[in-house]
Design a protein that fits this description.
The complex is a heterodimer. By secondary structure, chain A is an all-alpha fold. Chain B is elongated and about 50 Å long. The chains are: A mainly alpha, B mainly alpha.
């Protein structure tokens, strides 16, 4: 284990947003006098931007170190945060290449979205309380997310993990006076808690297994150093699990990895726990961009990458992750085809792209997964914010059925949205192109069972992605306007605080891929004189902390694969062009001919309804009939409380109640008598 | 040195005074004061025993009792205040609604 370089600057990255949140919180909840808008903006945006600047400085310091010694730590206390005889977790931060990438994304994209929120939330005609409350939650979220990625041990990470869940809940239900929003917030929180249970199980299992062999590690670096001791251990499954593959002996690492993945699947909206993310769109659009697209939902990918040494020892868990990711990607993409709500399309697209990331992680290409985390943060934040700009212009209309023809009316939004669509579709040399091709390549070359099928699914999903994103773009910006004349007359570009972040994110979506293009696909490699080894600087930067699987592949194969994926995406986009621009009658005809299939897709395969019937309603019924009516109202209230009272009344014929006189001093008198009696009893017994 | 019997006797007398006060006075503030008297009688006994046996736990208990007594006074006065706001009186017999 390399020695860590101490750096006390790290603590300020999470602490600054926390200060912003605490100041807002104290003023809102205790003083009950929120800051005015200018001060709110200065405090909230200022702290996040300052955190971004500090992150840049820190990452600069980090790159100055030798490639294999890029570890910085910052311990808040000399003693431990939580400690017993057997283990201790420090309140310490760990900055290595992996967390460096994440803090840059969180604070960088976070700053842009904070600035965007100024304009977006200003349009929300509420008092300053709502404005300050929004920025308070946003700062609290940024703090929690930074704790999640900077924590140097699993417990601190879990603190941030729960923190982002709470902030997500608070922000989805931000307009809580609408009951639906509050419901969506609760749903997100509860589904996330199911995943968190898996996270906790994994944490306990890992900790106890390590304790069994004499290590009491909880910090990531200690766990990684101690892990080889348990990497080859196996567990025997109980008989009733005999249907599982590999029964009866499983590797311990597989079990640990699967538990952690349940947590990741909850946070990152993978099957079967994805249902909360589309509903999370009930929150304000900047929230959808920051939390439910760019940062929080990628926490699962980050966690899996952080624990990559576990998955490297657990091929079974890796295969499960890869397949879950691929199926989620395809499933969500097909749902996105038929949605008309602009934010719903983007939400399902996020689920689908997260599936891509897990596919990469499951194939052992953690670097590719993290690369897609970064590029996805760029273009998905851009798409959501541009959608927010459209929604503002349309006076909070989100249905693309009522849009169309916005190209002329919203020229800036139109252009940036187009770049976002091109980036996600994988247009050559834009951000999504490099990361998606790395993932496809990883799926093609991996040793996961059925990797050819995984590659086919991923390729098909890439085509569907291009199709539904192009569809969304065409239906929103091209063609005839379907809005009412009254709405149309008021459409105009929103304020500069909204458009400037869009332009920055558009530039990042276009050029962001060049932080680490694969050598075979790098168009400027020869121009700048970069060697093949140095081309994928992003992967090289992350390589020391990730347990990446390595594959040798020649450039020509890689270029061929890229050509195929671009061609598939191109076909998807052209198909959308044909259906929605050139022959507008076609979609209706297809809808009619598909019949049942179309109904199924439009209604999202009835998964939510299925969960409602199978899980929610029985649970509510049991809670209501058994736990509430029978146990609480019947047994506890009826038999124990009222029953015992009725028994006493019956026996004494109701006379005993007069002891309850209502005069406090009569009770005191009885008490004094009792005390005196006790004293007399004790005194006589002693004598 | 004062013999321990003196201290314990004084403590007992103070405690009895407190009990009598709490039982006979109708003014809530006076009752609270009487309760304080009882607590301090106990404190005195604890300190006396603590010195007798050379064991510091007794003094530690006293500190604990003082803390609890302070909290109790805060809550007690709060109740008195709210009773006065509702009934314009601090007579304990005026608050006798909670009965059979």
């Amino acid at each position: 284990m390399v020695d860590a370089t101490p750096n006390t600057l790290i603590r300020w990255v999470p602490l600054l947003p926390l200060i912003g949140a605490v100041v807002h919180g104290v003023l809102l909840a205790l003083v009950r006098k929120p800051l005015n808008r200018a001060l709110t903006i200065a405090l909230s945006c200022g702290t996040v931007i300052a955190a971004f600047v500090i992150s840049l400085l820190l990452v600069n310091d980090l790159t100055m170190l030798a490639a294999d010694a890029r570890v910085m730590t910052d311990s808040l206390y000399a003693s431990s945060w939580i400690g017993t005889a057997n283990f201790s977790a420090d309140a310490a931060f760990l900055l290595d290449p992996l967390s460096a990438v994440m803090i840059l994304v969180v604070t960088g994209v976070g700053s842009l979205i904070h600035i965007y929120s100024i304009g977006y939330m200003d349009d929300d005609h509420r008092d300053d309380r709502g404005f300050a409350r929004f920025f308070c939650y946003m700062n609290l979220f940024t703090f929690s997310m930074l704790m999640l990625v900077l924590g140097d041990n699993l417990l601190l990470m879990f603190l941030g993990w729960e923190g982002v869940g709470v902030c997500s809940y608070l922000l989805i239900g931000f307009w809580y006076s609408d009951k639906w929003n509050a419901y969506c917030g609760s749903k997100a929180f509860i589904v996330n808690r199911i995943g968190d249970f898996g996270f906790l199980l994994g944490l306990f299992l890992l900790f106890w297994s390590l304790a069994d062999v004499g290590h009491s590690a909880i910090a990531f670096r200690d766990i990684q150093a101690a892990f080889p001791a348990i990497a080859e251990q196996t567990v025997t499954l109980p008989q009733w699990l005999s249907f599982l593959p590999g029964f009866p002996e499983w590797k311990l690492a597989t079990l640990i990895g699967l538990c952690f993945f349940v947590g990741a699947a909850g946070k990152s909206a993978q099957m079967p726990l994805y249902v909360w993310l589309p509903d999370a769109m009930a929150g304000p659009t900047p929230v959808s961009a920051l939390i439910h697209a760019a940062t929080m939902v990628t926490a699962g990918v980050y966690m899996v990458s952080r624990m990559s040494f576990v998955y490297a020892a657990a091929p079974g868990a890796s295969a499960f992750i890869a397949w879950t990711g691929a199926i989620t990607a395809l499933f969500a993409a097909t749902i996105a085809i038929a949605q008309t709500d602009i934010k719903k399309v983007l939400a399902y697209s996020t689920v689908s792209q997260l599936g891509f990331m897990f596919l990469a992680a499951g194939c052992g290409a953690f670097g590719a997964a993290m690369f897609h985390v970064v590029t996805h943060a760029f273009f998905k934040a851009l798409l959501f914010l541009a959608a927010g700009s459209v929604i503002l212009a349309m006076h909070h209309e989100q249905d693309t059925d009522k849009m169309g023809g916005l190209r002329k009316l919203l020229p800036i939004t139109h252009k940036v949205f187009m770049f976002g669509v091109l980036a996600i579709a994988g247009f050559p040399f834009m951000a999504g192109f490099f990361s998606k091709d790395e993932i496809l390549l990883a799926a093609k070359l991996s040793h996961v069972p059925g990797h050819e099928a995984l590659y086919a699914i991923a390729l098909g999903t890439a085509g569907i992605t291009a199709f539904y994103m192009a569809r969304l773009y065409f239906r929103t910006f091209l063609g005839e306007s379907r809005a009412s004349a009254q709405v149309r007359s008021h459409i105009h570009e929103p304020a500069n605080t909204v458009t400037y972040p869009l332009i920055v994110l558009a530039l990042l979506s276009i050029f962001g891929g060049f932080i680490g293009p694969a050598a075979a696909l790098n168009p400027v490699k020869g121009l700048l004189g970069i060697s093949d080894e140095n081309s994928n600087s992003f992967a090289n930067f992350l390589a020391p902390v990730l347990a990446n699987a390595h594959h040798e592949v020649d450039h020509w194969t890689e270029q061929q694969l890229a050509l195929v994926s671009v061609a598939v995406a191109g076909i998807g986009a052209l198909l959308a062009l044909w259906m929605y621009v050139l022959k507008p009658g076609v979609p209706v005809a297809i809808r009619k001919s598909l019949g049942v299939v179309h109904t199924l897709v439009v209604n999202k395969y009835y998964v939510v309804e299925l969960y409602d019937r199978v899980l929610v309603r029985p649970l509510v019924a049991i809670s209501d009939r058994v736990l509430y009516r029978f146990i609480d109202a019947g047994l506890i209230d009826g038999v124990l409380v009222n029953g015992s009272a009725a028994t006493v009344r019956g026996i004494t014929n109701g006379l005993l109640k007069y002891a309850q006189s209502g005069f406090a001093q009569s009770y005191l008198g009885w008490m004094a008598l009792g005390g005196a009696a006790l004293v007399v009893y004790l005194a006589t017994r002693a004598a | 040195m004062i013999p321990i019997t003196h201290a314990v006797a004084l403590s007992g007398i103070l405690f009895l005074l407190g009990v009598l006060g709490a039982l006979t006075r109708r003014n809530l503030i006076a009752i609270l004061m009487s309760i304080e008297l009882m607590l301090n009688a106990v404190n005195l006994a604890l300190v006396a025993f603590s010195r007798q046996w050379g064991n510091h736990s007794g003094q530690l208990f006293v500190l604990m009792v003082i803390v609890v007594a302070a909290a109790e006074v805060a809550v007690g006065l709060g109740i008195v205040l709210s009773l006065f706001r509702n009934r314009e009186s601090v007579n304990v017999d005026d608050a006798s609604l909670l009965k059979w």
